[in-house]
Design a protein that fits this description.
Blueprint: E1 13-19, E2 22-27, E3 31-35, E4 39-42, E5 55-60, E6 64-69, E7 74-78, E8 90-93, E9 100-102
Antiparallel strand pairs: 1-2, 2-3, 3-8, 4-7, 5-6, 6-7, 8-9
Length: 103
Amino acid sequence: MTSKLGALVGMAVTDVLQVHDYVQLLFEKDISLNIYNALRLCHGDDLRALTGATLLRVEEKQDTLIFYFSNGKRLDIHLCDAAYSGPEALELNFPGQPTVVWN
C-alpha cells in the first residue's frame, strides 16, 4: 500500500472520540486519525468497540476506505461526493511529521 494509512496497520486503537462533528481514532505512539466524512461500523454500532483492537488491513477503493480490525469489526469511510461534510475527508497526524489530509 502506498498510502500513509498503511503505517497504521499493526497498531492498536487506544481510544475513540466523538469530537463535535467528527470522529477521532487514537492509535499507539500518539497517532490520530480524524474522520470528517460519513462512516459506517460493520458488525456493531458503537465505535468505542474499536478500542483495544489492532488494525489488520486497510483497503483503498475508489469511493471507500475499509479498515479491518482484530476484533472482527470493519470500519467503512465513504469518499463519494455525498459523504463530505466539509473540505476534507480525513486527517492523519503522526507526531513530528506533517499532517496528511484527504480531500
